[in-house]
Amino acid sequence: MKSELTITDGRLQITRLFEAPRDVVFGCWKQAEKMQQWSGCKDATHCEIEMDFRVGGSFTQKMHMTHGGDFSFTGKYEEIVEPERIVYNADLGFATTRVVVEFFEQGSQTKMVLTQEGFPNEFFCKTVSQGTMEGLDKLEQLLVAQAV
Hints:
The protein has helices at 22-30, 32-38, 122-147, and strands spanning 4-8, 11-18, 44-51, 58-65, 69-81, 85-91, 96-106, 109-117. It is α+β, with helices and mostly antiparallel strands. Strands 1-2-8-7-6-5-4-3 form an 8-stranded antiparallel beta sheet. It starts with a strand and ends with a helix. The model has no long low-confidence stretch (mean pLDDT 94).
């Protein structure tokens, strides 16, 4: 399943079904080594992540882009309920957004719902949603490779 996207009033929501157990999908969000393998848009040639995965902990993500240097952002974790939910603020430079990632067990699959709000306009919302969906495509490829 490809991502389902909804954009309304500076808020995006992406729903995706992964062919992997919930704890495995959640695990790809809590370890920098795993996130570096999938996070970032398709034009990101390399992704560096430093993270302190705990409530009150912070993270920094830097992506090296094919056609345009680097893009980085930082954030702080507000809530972590393993393996159900991650809530964090992301300072994207042009805006600080609130991100809620929820993981729902559906048999041997996992439904992930990512909600991000606080975008100043629809352009930034669409730009971030595209990059996020491309990253989720890479996450799906990683999960398939792990299952083999």
